[in-house]
Predict the structure.
Amino acid sequence: MSWAPPSADERAVPRHGDPARIAVAFTRVLRGAGLRVPTSSTHTFAEALCAVGLDDRAGVYWSGRATLARNPEDIDVYDRAFAVFFDRRDAHVDPDDEEQLSITIAVDDDDDNPSDDDAGEPNDDPTIELRFSANEVLRNKDFAQYSADELVQAHELMSRLRLVGSPRSSLRLETTRRATTRPDIRRTMQAALRTGGEPIERHHRAPSTRLRRLVILLDVSGSMEPYARALLRFVHAAVAGRQKVEAFALGTRLTRLTRELQSRDPDVALSAATGRVVDWSGGTRLGDGLRHFNDEWGVRGLARNSIVVILSDGWDRGDPETLAEQMERLHRVTHRLVWVNPLKVTPGYAPLARGMAAALPHIDAFVEGHSVAAMEELTRVISE
């Protein structure tokens, strides 16, 4: 099968635009041509485009070839797709192959309201119709690159996340049909009164289950500035969407934000939260903040058998031994201790920061936290 350039009336791929948007579009082209391109490769390609720029055609070519063409036999298809997509020129056509493939690229701004172009009659032309939504691009875009409008859109996406922790047994008993559980004497006797005193219908009770409490500690220090405001929207979505979520801000001091974030109006909640945090974009003393949390709330009961999530890049101006001691202390009482680091997605990242290195031995899960897609993965980790 050979390639033909798109016709003049087809939508052109912008030569200058959002690298993440272009990376997703080109990945769709390659997938339509038969290449297997994982989502992680698309993300790496988008980061490479941000680094080399869209004006450097050689840089764009080698960035895509290094990240998207995984096998030697993929290179020929990649070269032809690159020529069509980026250079808008005809690729090599095999004269013995009469069938040609044209590419149409369309962008849907709204997942729920696709365009009406699909409603037409079916077309027998071998055309690949590629569509990707702005929401999909936004899901994988780094929080540090968000505009103000994109922060609002991301908040809407994160408000749809279901933060449900694993269930735990409660001291409360509930009615059950399982005969292997403890008998419910009161209900059994009440039923016997309706049958002349014979306990024909027997009732039982068993411990009920309840969702574990979720505790979120957000690092608001200066090193977290590119991510803190987006992550604060995630914390608000968690607090407003569930009853048992506690939120704290970690900086040079510990600030409880649960009450401020309970409002379902994001503008009101975020304004109250940022007004409450007096050390926003300042220094950070994670060890001292965790000691305060453990002494005041955590060890006393708030963190016991709970899921504790720390959103931080691990940069700490305090003593790493203090942080390690408090992390070990917190880990002993929690059900699950999760650390979310926005820098983990960086190629070649290693937890070399003193704070991160001190905390790592005491956590149950170490996950990324740079995008909406990473937050979706975090919800899966929390539910385990």
